[in-house]
Amino acid sequence: MAFTSNRWIRILGASFLMYTVSFIDRTNIAMAIPAMKQELGFTAAAIGFATGLFFFGYVVLQIPAGRLATTWSAKNFILTLIIAWGVVSMSTALVHTEAMLALNRFVLGVVEGGVLTATIVLIRHWFPRAERARANMIFLVSIPFGAFIASPISGFILHSVGWRPMFVIEAIPAFVWAAVWYWAIADRPEQAAWLPAAEKAALVATLAREAAEERTRFVAQGHWSRAIVHPSVLLFAAYNFLALIGSWGFTIWLPSLLKSFHIGIETVGVLASLPYLTGVAAMILFAVTSDRMQERKWHMILLTAGAGVLMLLEVWLQSAGVARVSLAIVLLSLANGLFYGRFGAFWALPSEFLPAELMGIGVAMANGLGNLGGFFGPFIVGWVETTTHSFMVGFAFLGLCMIAGALLAIPIRTWKDIPLATAAVRTDR
What we know:
mainly alpha; Growth Hormone, Chain: A
């Protein structure tokens, strides 16, 4: 069937739905926080600390994921993680103490940590340079889409049966999708029996030619591990660290911010989903412009800075007494849209300053160290709310981190900036 032999549908469709499930299972706790605070007596600071520990666990498998996806099998590595995160996410229903919640979030971070890195490598194996921002966008639009559908679904389940059954019910799709993933995915085009022969030959040839072109810009100067300290990799990771302080602080605490306007949890679920709808639209728009212009870095920088400015504008208006939930949703939706709009260009950028053999390591560094920002964002906003009983200072901090990250990314050099026969790292293993 043409439907199942289309690589855009098969590879990216399976990846999109896989990561949608993953994102729901890691973020549904945001909707459960008000009920957990009431039933278990947890403070906002304790919940912020526990949810932030997810990102310390997230770091554990980053380098192994980058290497294993490149040298072993992205398909099988991800399959193992899908089953593992389903088990851990379901176990959140058993939490009774702050220590149990902290351990649960850390372990969930470990088993979800290698998924994005391995999937970005998989996409690199399947899509040439001219298609990569759009391919990454189709995969990563699962993040705002997952958040968009998770909030109202979680709100309905919470209202109907409570927060513990919610974690059980929303973990079940992971086990179902593991079977689909095993059937649908091949690691590389040459391994796919379902891909038409002519398309397979042309695709393999194009990917091989691009890999050879990339290698001409990197002279052998050491072991593959030197990619870890590549200047552009370090800047890329530092940018992501600051940007994700802003993003994850927003994601975890948005429902609680909306609840502070004294509206019901089902309404919170609907309103909290709207910023992610704008995220979907922006990802599609800016991935197309990035591929058409063959430009990555400035898309990433300008969109991230714009998101930070809009978040600061919302804080300023709220502090000035313009405290309307409709205004908050509009400005935060626009900010979230710009931030998610960066994703296609963001994950296409490593292939423009590292050769294919080292991209897994570069992605792992950016994803692992960058996601440590996911600890500081939720924790700091939670601590500030516990101290001041307001989210405004915390959200201002998130906006400033986004702007600082954008400024830090300006010195990143892509392969277009590097003269032929100059180099950063060795391309052998």
